[in-house]
Write a structure and sequence with these properties.
The chain has 315 residues and is an alpha+beta fold. It has 9 helices and 10 strands.
């Protein structure tokens, strides 16, 4: 009889709740190595043209068009704070992988492979006219000696974590059609011809852990190809559109009864536009306005607005 799917979050929580001496630890059980990568990683040149990668194919078509052509960055930049955030994600991944590998030692039907320093490089072929898209899954979960699921580990803010928890409680897939992580994981599944993704999410604020299984979408490849075709257009022609067809249009704050705009400016979608490296190029023709503040955590918060068409140029 085949084993039932594992509750990966329970395994991680149990392992951290019951410390014990490590056996001889391979490199993937050394979180410091993952952290140091951000201090010497020189492969994140934001100005250089870069073709599609699995981790970025969920971005809007225009954002991809700017990046593929090496258009100079004019928006969110990769600064030291960003690298610290990436470092925290690397450390979380290493800790979760270590906990899972050790926890699975007592479950012979299940094993975890291609993790840490041994991650495998995979390629997704979107079809004729497009080069294979590279990616690095966090690991492969084997069941009865055969690859069964792609492991994806994510560290998340308390907001994103609670949103995922509520979705699971309601029986809804946490990563919906407009979520970039969904396209990354679907890409791994298509490249490896697997049907299941195993997601483990850790809250960076509370240390809470949850997990779920994400299933392969048979419509993914046709949808992705349409998205890449849109992204292949010149930036001024490529639409502000996510792979699922969602158009990134400004949000208009309307009066509840009159239905007229309440404010002089329309807010640009914070996700993902506020985190795009090219929002300056993209929204400047509409009259881009930037407002920065500090959120409750002391972190910088950026809000983008454009002038209402009927009040263009007003302060």
């Amino acid at each position: 009889m085949s084993p039932q799917p594992l509750d990966l979050a329970a395994l991680v929580r149990e392992r951290f709740a019951n410390p014990r001496p490590w056996p001889d630890a391979p490199d993937y059980r050394t979180p410091g190595r993952a952290a140091l990568r951000q201090l010497h990683d020189v492969d994140r040149d934001e100005e250089a043209p870069r073709g599609p990668r699995m981790s970025g194919i969920g971005k809007c078509a225009r954002a991809l068009s700017y990046r593929w052509r090496g258009v100079p960055v004019d928006g969110r930049r990769l600064d030291g704070r960003s690298r610290i955030v990436f470092t925290l994600g690397d450390v979380v991944e290493s800790l979760v992988v270590s906990a899972l590998v050790d926890a699975l030692d007592d479950r012979p039907a299940w094993t975890l492979h291609n993790v840490g320093e041994d991650q495998t490089r995979v390629y997704l072929s979107p079809g004729e006219g497009f080069a294979p898209i590279p990616g690095h899954p966090d690991g492969l979960l084997y069941r009865d000696g055969q690859p069964w699921a792609v492991l994806e580990i994510k560290s998340a803010s308390s907001f994103a974590f609670q949103r995922a928890r509520r979705a699971l409680a309601e029986g809804v897939e946490p990563w919906g059609p407009g979520e970039s992580y969904r396209y990354q994981l679907q890409g791994y599944l298509a490249a490896l011809d697997l049907d299941v993704g195993a997601v483990v999410m850790v809250s960076k604020d509370s240390g809470a852990v949850l997990s779920w299984y994400h299933h392969r979408d048979p419509e993914y490849l046709p949808q992705l190809r349409e998205h890449l075709e849109r992204a292949s257009l010149p930036p001024e022609e490529a639409p502000r559109m996510l792979p699922d067809g969602t158009v990134l249009a400004p949000r208009v704050d309307l009066h509840k009864t009159r239905g007229t705009p309440n404010k002089r400016h329309n807010e640009v979608p914070k996700f993902p536009c506020g985190y795009c490296s090219h929002f300056g190029h993209c929204w400047r023709p509409e009259g881009l306005i930037k407002r920065t503040a500090t959120d409750y955590r002391g972190a910088p918060s950026l809000a983008l607005y454009v002038n209402r068409p009927d009040l263009e140029g007003t302060p």
